[in-house]
Design brief:
The complex is a heterodimer. Chain A is α+β, with helices and mostly antiparallel strands. Helices cover 37% and strands 17% of the residues of chain A. Chain A contains four helices and five strands, in the order H-H-E-E-E-E-E-H-H. Chain A has a three-stranded antiparallel beta sheet with strand order 1-2-3. In chain A, strands 4-5 form a two-stranded antiparallel sheet. In chain A, a hairpin with a 5-residue loop joins strand 1 (56-60) and strand 2 (66-75). The longest helix of chain A has 24 residues, at 27-50. The radius of gyration of chain A is 16 Å and the shape is globular. Chain A starts with 5 loop residues before the first helix and ends in a 9-residue tail after the last helix. The model of chain A has no long low-confidence stretch (mean pLDDT 90). Chain B has helices at 12-17, 22-39, 42-73, 81-90, 113-120, 144-153, 186-197, 213-222, 244-257, 300-303, 314-333, 365-373, 375-399, 424-427, 448-454, 464-476, and strands at residues 76-77, 94-95, 134-138, 158-163, 202-207, 236-239, 261-266, 272-278, 292-294, 341-345, 436-438. In chain B, helix 2 packs antiparallel against helix 3 (42-73), helix 6 (144-153) runs parallel beside helix 7 (186-197) and helix 6 crosses helix 11. Chain A: This is Ubiquitin-fold modifier-conjugating enzyme 1. Chain A: Belongs to the ubiquitin-conjugating enzyme family. UFC1 subfamily.
Chain lengths: 166, 477
């Protein structure tokens, strides 16, 4: 299992765990699950804002099956922002959402077709172990966050992406 | 293009000497005309013009005759043996026509003779039964495309292919796809090639992602009769996908339909693979135990290097496709023993097999329900297997009546590095064959106390829309 930095570790422990094991095909269960998802996300965003570490925005469609927003990363005092989106898989929450950053599609080998970030090693086993108690907030905190921290500086330093003002 | 047909396609020497050849005559008349024009002798000029007209007419006739020949020769059907000979001589495209009935006749142009020979050899009782079988292949990548080609060449009745991806040049280290397919959807490129190989197969191509809610419904509809979502219309589903999510989706669909399926996989380091047969309620489902892999004998830490998501080899993928389709043929045509799990470790050439019983505590409710339904079937199979094992033991016993040298059989050691590396696997308590490991940890690492302390708090009065609005409001701040 990957080693988590202290910050991520202490943050994730503050994100509430989810209780309802229900996917989007389970009408009643999903309504409950969705409430839990939103509540956990609100808590996580508030935590981030409270420590001045806000790094994404997110919202979902009415059914809660498609999510989109923005995420950003600060590197050498410059902010790099990306569109972010994903669908809730039909087998959720047994499987994690496959987070996509479409703008980076084809720019890094740590990504599957369509801009799906590669999470198989550091994140998926963890999700599997904690299923069904992890939700979207956990996926962002333990999946996307560490991925960006590892990948974005590398993409900037190698000139594959550049700041929008440059 | 050289004239009347009885001549070979290339006879340049002869052509040069042939003064009656219209092209030669034409150019010689033309040069004569040029000299006449220069001399301005009007009678001779007219004579030359009429000779030239003759030459042009003759050339035209020859061109038309050659074009007519071409039309007659192509396309050539394989059913016409004379046609084949002509075609190969001129290396023109051969089109394989549909064949109404599989024939066992040993002829060069019978694409089924070697398959039907399986009956004569006593391997398969009724090979032609394969034409009544329909197989769905999900994932037309390194394993799936090759599996589809094998099934097509074997003459399967129907082949349903699913993939959301397009062919890229980066796929060229695998088999089947060719550079000219780049940019096409994998399913369309596969149908195009496979239909030429065997037009007797009914191909269906589904360019879609099965993991979304919509995709799942379409997938289920496509493998059921009239799309009713209930009555299976395929004999087997083959999973050739490259990720855990898609496997879980296939598992869910197959549990709901009580559809038998086979899972296949190649490790990210490209040096091990496996196939697994899943009969809902009778064997373990994909969710019963964490997914299994064959340990490759490579230290995992060396794999988790930066920058690379997955390696792949055409060899390993071709072998796994071969195992998968071989098992499929055995299952569909009822010969040999169908493997419930077969692993392949390329580093040691080690092939573990095992049966996997369903987990009574499976987290999938549909699986648990089917386990109860098929308890009798599991029992019957267990007894049949025990009876067979006893038979084998008795046979073995009779082979050595005396044992002068006190030879005894000792348990073979698993190849070093291939054995279960303990840790999480052992904690999960399932008995695995040598060399096989879990690729994912088991769910529910969070105990009830932790959950209670950290669980999200929602109220029944909370409105989903309100919460969504609250979250959105945070975005704008």
């Amino acid at each position: 299992m990957a080693e988590w930095d202290a910050g991520t570790k202490s943050t994730v422990q503050k994100i509430p765990l989810l209780k309802t094991k229900a996917g989007p095909r389970d009408k009643e269960g999903w309504a409950n699950r969705l409430k839990e998802e939103y509540t956990a996300l609100i808590k996580y965003v508030q935590l981030n804002k409270g420590s001045d570490q806000d790094w994404f925005t997110i919202s979902s469609n009415k059914e809660g099956t498609h999510w989109s927003g923005k995420c950003w990363y600060i590197h050498n005092l410059l902010k790099y922002e990306f569109d972010l989106e994903f669908d809730i898989p039909v087998t959720y929450p047994m499987t994690s959402p496959e987070i996509q950053l479409p703008e980076l599609d084809g720019k890094t080998s740590k990504m599957y077709r369509g801009g799906k970030i590669c999470l198989s090693i550091h994140f998926k086993p963890l999700w599997s172990k904690n299923s069904p108690h992890f939700g979207v907030a956990h996926a962002l905190c333990l999946g996307l966050g560490p991925w960006m921290a590892a990948e974005i500086p590398h993409l900037i330093d190698t000139g594959i992406i550049s700041h929008k003002d440059k | 293009m050289s004239g009347e047909g009885e001549e070979g396609p290339s006879s340049p020497g002869k052509e040069q000497q042939d003064v009656t050849h219209p092209m030669k005559a034409f150019s010689s008349e033309l040069s004569k005309l040029q000299s006449q024009v220069q001399a301005l002798q009007s009678t001779k000029l007219q004579e030359q013009v009429s000779k030239l007209r003759e030459s042009v007419k003759s050339i035209n006739e020859r061109v038309q005759a050659a074009a007519e020949d071409l039309r007659k020769d192509a396309p050539v059907s394989v059913a016409d043996s004379k046609g084949v000979a002509t075609a190969s001589k001129y290396s023109r495209a051969v089109k394989r026509e549909k064949i109404a009935k599989m024939s066992a006749e040993v002829k060069d142009d019978n694409p089924y003779s070697r398959l039907m020979a399986l009956q004569r050899m006593g391997i398969v009782k009724d090979y032609e039964k394969i034409r009544d079988k329909t197989v769905a292949v999900v994932g037309i990548g390194g394993v799936g495309s090759v599996a589809c080609e094998m099934l097509t060449r074997c003459g399967v009745g129907g082949l349903l292919m699913y993939d959301y991806d397009t062919v890229e040049l980066a796929n060229m280290n695998r088999l089947f796809f060719r550079p000219e397919h780049a940019g096409m959807t994998k399913t369309d490129a596969a149908v195009k090639t496979l239909r030429e190989i065997n037009p007797d197969v009914n191909f269906e191509s589904y360019h879609m992602n099965i993991t979304t809610v919509d995709g799942f419904e379409k997938f289920v509809a496509s493998i059921t009769r009239d799309g009713d979502g209930k009555t299976p219309r395929v004999d087997l589903v083959l999973s050739c996908v490259d990720n855990y999510e898609a496997r879980m989706v296939i598992n869910q669909a197959c549990l709901e339909l009580e559809q038998t399926w086979m899972e296949s996989g190649v490790s990210e380091d490209a040096v091990s693979g496996h196939i697994q047969m899943i009969e809902p309620g009778v064997t373990a489902c994909f969710e019963c135990v964490p997914p299994l892999v064959v340990a490759s004998g490579i230290d995992e830490k060396t794999l988790k290097r930066e920058g690379v998501c997955a390696a792949s080899l055409p060899t390993t993928m071709g072998m796994v496709a071969g195992f998968l389709v071989q098992n499929t043929l055995k299952y569909l045509l009822n010969f040999g023993e169908v493997s419930m799990y077969l692993g392949y470790n390329a580093m040691k050439d080690f092939f573990p097999t095992m049966d996997i019983q369903p987990n009574p505590g499976c987290t999938n409710a549909a699986c648990c329900k089917l386990q109860t339904k098929y308890a009798g079937e599991r029992d019957r199979r267990k007894k049949a297997k025990e009876a067979k094992d006893v038979e084998v033991e008795e046979d073995a016993g009779a082979l050595h009546e005396d044992n002068e040298w006190s030879i005894s059989v000792v348990e073979e050691e698993a190849p070093a590095g291939a054995g279960g590396q303990g840790g999480e696997s052992e904690a999960q308590g399932a008995e695995l064959a040598e060399g096989i490991e879990f690729s994912m940890p088991k769910a529910d690492a969070i105990d009830e106390k932790t959950l209670e302390e950290n669980a999200v708090e929602t109220n029944d009065d909370d409105d989903v829309d309100d919460l969504r609005a609250q979250l959105e409001a945070l975005n704008s701040k």
